[in-house]
Write a structure and sequence with these properties.
Blueprint lengths: L7 H24 L14 H6 L3 E5 L1 H9 L8 E5 L19 H10 L2 E6 L2 E8 L6 E2 L7 H10 L9 E6 L7 E6 L5 E7 L2 E6 L2 E7 L5 E5 L2 E4 L7 H6 L3 H15 L7 H13 L10 E5 L14 E4 L1 E6 L4 E5 L3 E4 L4 E7 L5 E6 L2
Parallel strand pairs: 1-2
Antiparallel strand pairs: 3-19, 4-6, 4-18, 5-17, 7-12, 7-16, 8-9, 10-11, 10-15, 12-13, 13-14, 15-18, 16-17
Helix pairs in contact: 7-8
Amino acid sequence: LALKGSNYSGLLERHHIHTKNVEHVVDSLRNERIEVRLVKRREYDEDTVRWADAVISAGGDGTMLLAASKVFDRFKPVIGVNTDPERSEGHLCLPVRYTHSFPEALQKFYRGEFRWQWRQRIRMYLEGTGINPTPVDLHEQQLSQEQHSRALVNGRFHDQKSEVSGPHLLPVRALNEVFIGESLSSRVNYKSCKPSFKFSLHRASYYEVSVDDGPWEKQKSSGLNVCTGTGSKAWSYNINKVATQVVEEILKIAKKHESLSLPLSRELIQKVTNEYNDSLLYSPEEPKMFFSIREPIANRVFSSSLQRGFFSKVCVRSRCWNACMVVDGGTSFEFNDGAIASILINTEDALRTVLLEE
């Protein structure tokens, strides 16, 4: 660890903080005579979820996403506790002060001083040729690129009678986002015309996309992201947000061409920047999705008219060679040439979480 630049004593200290806060949550529940089953990440399965009346994730947002991924009963609450607030943002967890005073949160639950928040989730259907609806759990293991590809291939459908399969409803729901793209979009492939000559070819993600059952558009990019209201504060926001420097430069160009007399004060630039970035965010309970393309390539062959926006349904037909559809950064599905994904929200998939009244 030291050779990798990690601080062992610092990591051990964070582990002790996490463990202490987990014990605090468990003890608080047992003091209320609530039966508790404490499970580690690898022990968390469908049987455990069925046993529980409620699921409490103890960690950060990643732990909350993992906990939610196995809950399909829309009436089973999932509650997140941030066990290391100094190192984890915890957007999906209870307010930080309840990390050290969980009994206070329990008393608020008893008194009904909270409201249910139904976080909408995305469901996915996969169909087409050579599809593989078997997920690879990225939480379970750290895989190299080669190992990840091999794991996907091992689960592929081998149906000699029919070349086209589906649609298959995938066994996972996205609380944050779905990302589709080549496994290594920055990878360079080397091709040779002659033994003495080689040239490199950047492998972008190649696919066709249709939104709200509209016409298909052929695109190349670094991948596409479809998020929920919950996920609009996460990766999607960072893909699409603009910096004040960009806004200032655009306003200067507009002022020059239109002879605007508007003074470009720092306050105005910041206000415009904030208003645009705030428009990217929306309520976790709204049954709609935000769709965005990362670094679209536009030329005479590939269009980029569909770059971002709110939609009810997104369909993607893969033309990729080594691509994946990744759900909440934790579950991966093979998504290569011939596969078609339909991405949409069904309100029956909503996740039951809590908002404490302050």
